[in-house]
Amino acid sequence: MDDRIRQITAYLEKKLSDEERRAFEELLNNSDDLRQELKEIRFVLDISGELGRHRRIDTARNWRELSRRIAVNRYRTKILHFARNAAAVLLIPVLTVTSVLHRKISEQDNMPANRIELTSAYGLVTKVKLPDGSDVWLNSGTTISYPQQFKGDTRSVRLSGEAFFDVKADAENRFDVITADGLTVSAYGTEFNVYTYDDEQKVEATLVSGNIEVSAENAPDAVKVSRGQQAVFDRDGGKLTVENVNPAVKTSWKDGKMVFRRASMVEITRRLSRHFNVDIRLEGNELYDYDYSATFTTETLNEILHLLEKSAPITCRIIEPEQSGDYSFTKRTVIIRMNRK
């Protein structure tokens, strides 16, 4: 195993120190080849981990647990039968034992399942398959958590960031995406996008196909969203509204694209900052008057900034990371300002 593969593997397994992790992520943000190699190694590790989990299944222990449950159920049946036919003087204590036994069994069945939490690295789109077979694409810097197995009549996941959901149809079991604000996006089988980064003022749920229902703790009524629409939740005002959108623009990131249609400089720099894990500062109020329409696919940050400079009278200056006294690195910074005549 060469040093590069060893370093990527250590990063995915979270074995790097904070200093090593920051240095590696800086390399990751500036190398398309490295991001592709990381994606391929992540896939291999995921498959290897799945095989390892299968090998670690303790069939003997699982059989003993199943046998114990069968014995408990038989015992409960015998108690119920005895309670039905016993003398009245024994009826109360027998039913008490039965009630306690039933409560213990119910508590065991309703214990929370172990949860899985996954985070997509900056600059990468990560695909995840949920326990019910639904597919999820995680955008850069997105975290999702879900149980190892869905139980009951609700399939529930928690999301921070942006994700595209292709939900496996199941009319009996609702699928819920829950955000940190208490916003819930519900469906039974459809395709939709949820945008809920913690540092954004608005949360968006965009429908691609099918139907979704969106509800918020602070909003009195849930809203139904049709194809070509999105629900928008204002975190400051607590207001939930529905508006028409172009779903292709909102979901293009899933296919490795960044599509802008009359987007403000603020929106563009916000998305570039998150995708490339850089700080972008705008200097000058005139910058806020410019709108852009563009589609980026494989371009690097430097190439995108160069294209922005050619389309408007602006200058982009990149400040490379510097090592501080504690051996950590500052974040890469981009300063955008108007050209002065």
Number of helices: 8
Using only C-alpha atoms, the radius of gyration works out to 26 Å
Main beta-sheet annotation: 13 strands, mixed
Quickly give the structural class. alpha+beta
Helix % is 25-40%
The 3D shape can be described as: globular
Which segments are poorly predicted (pLDDT under 50) over 5 or more consecutive residues?
Answer: 78-111
Order of helices and strands: HHHHHEEEEEEEEEEEEEHEHEEHEE
Mean pLDDT: 80
Intertermini distance: 55 Å
Number of strands: 18
> DSSP strand (E) fraction?
25-35%
What does this protein look like?
- The protein is an alpha+beta fold and 341 residues long.
- Helix content is 36%, strand content 30%.
- The strands form three sheets. Strands 1, 2, 3, 4, 5, 6, 7, 8, 9, 10, 11, 12 and 13 form a 13-stranded mixed sheet that branches.
- The longest helix has 27 residues, at 59-85.
- It starts with a helix and ends with a strand.
- Mean pLDDT is 80; it is low at 78-111.
Question: What is the topology?
Answer:
Layout: H1 3-12, H2 18-29, H3 32-55, H4 59-85, H5 88-109, E1 115-119, E2 126-129, E3 135-138, E4 143-147, E5 154-166, E6 174-178, E7 184-187, E8 191-196, E9 202-209, E10 212-215, E11 223-225, E12 229-234, E13 239-244, H6 247-251, E14 258-264, H7 265-276, E15 279-283, E16 291-296, H8 301-311, E17 314-319, E18 333-338
Parallel strand pairs: 5-6, 15-18
Antiparallel strand pairs: 1-4, 2-3, 3-5, 4-5, 5-8, 6-7, 7-10, 8-9, 9-12, 10-11, 12-13, 14-16, 17-18
